[in-house]
Automatic annotation (TrEMBL):
Residues 109-203 form the Peptidase S24/S26A/S26B/S26C domain. Keywords: DNA-binding, Transcription, Transcription regulation. One of its GO terms (molecular function) is DNA binding. This is Helix-turn-helix transcriptional regulator. SUPFAM superfamilies: LexA/Signal peptidase. Pfam families: Peptidase_S24 (PF00717). It comes from Bradyrhizobium australiense. It comes from the Bacteria.
Length: 207
């Protein structure tokens, strides 16, 4: 018997194979961006909500996948993956992180991505073209707060003023951080270490 969980898991895996989040897949399929969100899978009164055959069909067309592929995804375990919290980068400046830079509060979705071996790992979905050519609109990055950061790593950083940015770490001293912009059209930044609320390394991107 086909279960509610199996169908939704297959849709999640279909999105992951295409390098997208569930909401990214919905948008690519011409559907409302929230169509495949986890919050929509159970109704307010606790009933299971199944995806329509039309929405599944559009998702398959958007990823150039066959129904046979979808059936395989129903039974194929997500090997070497973990389910991590997902948030749109544009929302990251709000109250979605605790003081250590770990996901907190409401508004997070979930996505299955390659395992980061970090229980606090999370994903951010890029919007817009401000970080081209490094990241494109719709790309997902996997962030690992527990992974050591080295010179040359791409990082997510939040300042004490609430600004969230993605940069490349050029140099780090006890007093300052020198950050290189991923888009050559944007200026590099130097930030006082005291003004950094938290910083975490990007360990994977869906490209």
């Amino acid at each position: 018997m086909l279960t509610h969980s199996q169908v939704w898991t297959a849709l999640d895996r279909l999105a992951e194979r295409a390098g997208m989040s569930p909401s990214g897949l919905a948008k690519r399929a011409g559907l409302d961006p929230t169509t495949f969100n986890k919050s929509k899978r159970i109704t307010a009164d606790g009933r299971e909500r199944w995806p329509s055959t039309e929405s599944v069909s559009k998702a398959l067309a958007a990823t150039n996948s066959s129904i046979e592929t979808f059936v395989q995804l129903i039974g194929d375990g997500a090997r070497g993956q973990q389910s991590v919290p997902l948030l749109a980068l544009a929302q990251a400046g709000g109250g979605h992180f605790d003081g250590s830079g770990f996901p907190a509060g409401k508004g997070w979705d979930e996505v299955a991505l390659p395992s980061a071996s970090d229980e606090h790992a999370y994903a951010l979905e890029i919007s817009g073209d401000a970080m081209k050519p490094a990241y494109r609109d719709g790309d997902i990055i996997l962030v690992s707060p527990g992974t050591p950061i080295r010179r040359g790593d791409r990082v997510v950083l939040k300042t004490s003023d609430g600004e969230v940015m993605i940069k490349e770490l050029k140099r780090r001293t006890t007093k300052t951080l020198e950050l290189q912009s991923l888009n050559p059209a944007h200026a590099d930044r130097t930030i006082n270490a005291d003004d950094v609320a938290w910083i975490a390394r990007i360990v994977w991107a869906s490209q």
